[in-house]
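Dear colleagues,

For the upcoming journal club I promised to circulate an example of a predicted protein-ligand complex. I picked one with NDP because it came up in last month's discussion. The inputs are reproduced below in full, followed by the predicted structure.
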Amino acid sequence: MMLSESQKASFDALMQEKLLMSESKVVVITGASSGIGEATARLLAKQGNAVVLGARREEKLQKVVSEIVSDGGSAVYCVTDASKASDQEALARKAIETYGRIDVWVNNAGIMPLSLLSEDKVEDWDKCVDVNLKGVLYGIHACLGIMRAQKNGHIVNIGSLSSHQTGLTCGVYAATKFGVRAISETLREEEAAAGSGIRVTMLAPGMIATELPQSLTTQEGRDGMQAAYDALAIPAESVAQSVAFAVNMPENTAINEIIIRPTAQRL
Ligand code: NDP
């Protein structure tokens, strides 16, 4: 049967999609016990990838892994505090021992303890920097050497709209997320210059319905943020789809940044 040019193009696109779907990758995700990390793990596992989950709450990780496995997917976990370099090294080791390589590393773990700078919450500042900023660096530390040796890989960093803008109470959180953008862009340029084949993507989400508002450190803050999220936030699955989009592009194509927010979110 002869195909027209447009039929041939659609056939090629379909085959390309099937090929991409069948190419299993090993994907490590920090902060995979809830929200964006969990949704990303579930979606990428459903697409045929092997996923390695890291976070602190073991019972949550166990539940996600057992549900992925009983759905026919492949998943393991390693209890990981992203603010500890040694924990992230152990997470990478778990991936290598189980699957032999790391194709994608998603630096997703994060907290949002917002406060005015004048409130002087030094402990919250430390935690925010340790998880959101140093956690991303420790993730890069854990996987970059492995990816360099493989001569390919993909590092996905979860930034935020706060990687681009700040405002009242956002000083430290935005500082960490501006930092994630700076690290992502630097890493992109360095890996391109080195010809390492490693892709870098930063996701910059707006309000996404997850447990994040619960990481504010006052009841009043949590209640106010939760109410704002309940009114506007979109599901974590939408961010997971954006990660999958970047991951599933051909190896010679890097999606370097995606900004995703509710249509109705003004700022
Ligand atoms: P959740 O609170 O639902 O998820 C955060 C995840 O990070 C959890 O799995 C938590 O697991 C993990 N985590 C927190 N601290 C640590 C730590 N020290 N070590 C390891 N894991 C840790 O929120 P989201 O899914 O929304 O957050 C994911 C990322 O998305 C964050 O980086 C956040 O800044 C970013 N983001 C979210 C937005 C939103 O509106 N939801 C908007 C913009 C960015 P556990 O407690 O088990 O360790």
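Two points we might discuss: The first helix runs from residue 5 to 22. The radius of gyration is 19 Å.

See you all on Thursday,
B. R.
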